[in-house]
Amino acid sequence: MTSTAAASFAAGLKTTFDPKSSLTQLSDATVAANATSDGAVDKEKRRHVHHCACDNSFKLVPPAEEAQEIAKAAVETARDNDLDPEVIKTVGVKLDEISGELYDLSLDVHAHPELAFEEHHAHDVMSTFMERHGFRVTRHYGGLETAWRADWSFGHGGRVIGVNSEMDALPGIGHACGHNLIGMSGIGVAIAIKAAMESHNIPGKVVLLGTPAEEAGGGKIILLKNGAYKDMDVCLMSHPGPGPAHISTDGPLTAAQLILVEFKGRTAHAAAAPCS
To answer: C or N: which end of the chain has fewer Cβ atoms within 10 Å?
Structure first.
């Protein structure tokens, strides 16, 4: 499992912060977390299985081919974003190290689908996972029973990088939107950034939020109103999608705000009766 996101943000902690620069997402976020639910692929091969969303098939990627893809992606990332290749290497090594743990965590959450604001199992296993990896965890965070926050700081000063991990499933069809993958990806990014900060002496802070009720209920909106994001310089989230292994994409997003407007005076129709 590789990530240009963790490398980008870890390197960004020690470079000039540009809020307009594009944010890369976690590469290879799928990790075939749903691929072995029927036991079709053995555990030793799981790191080399990738889900082809277009035809619901699976392809086995030989380790040598995967290593070449990872190396090429790392070089291109460093060149395109002026990042330290050693930081990227640290991120890749850490994610490879915890890949099996992330895989098992994703399958666990997938096997226990929970609706909005009912993500008690996901809350418990994901927050405990972060504690095992050295994060300070606050459970039942931000006024929400199933939200949680994991913090880790290094040195003095620096920037605060926020990451989101979603957890909720859909009624009747479980984790069809892949929130088990999004949750696992956010955890992987946070732990990889931590490793890069430690290894390369980069001061700063990583905050991972377990965010309930994405599908219905506006969990992140509630957390935002309750101040959960106020100390972050930037916050990111990974979302799985179709495509070749070890790629990430970015693009513009549009936020929506509901506004109620009340007009007073004479009615008019600018096109049909502009002088009314």
So the answer is: C
Euclidean distance between CA atoms 2 and 88, whole angstroms: 9
Spans of the chain below 70 pLDDT: 1-82, 245-248, 250-253, 274-276
Measure the CA–CA gap between 123 and 131, rounded to whole angstroms. 12
- Distance (Å, whole) CA 86 – CA 108: 33
Q: Tell me the residue ranges of DSSP E strands in the chain.
A: 49-52, 57-60, 136-139, 148-154, 159-166, 204-211, 234-236
Q: How far is CA 56 from the centre of its chain?
A: 23
**CA dist., res. 11 & res. 18, Å (int):** 12
Give this prediction's pTM: 0.69
Find, among 108, 143, 99, the residue nearest to 126 by Cα: 108
The CA distance from 28 to 231, in Å, is: 29
Dist CA 59 CA 62 (whole Å)? 10
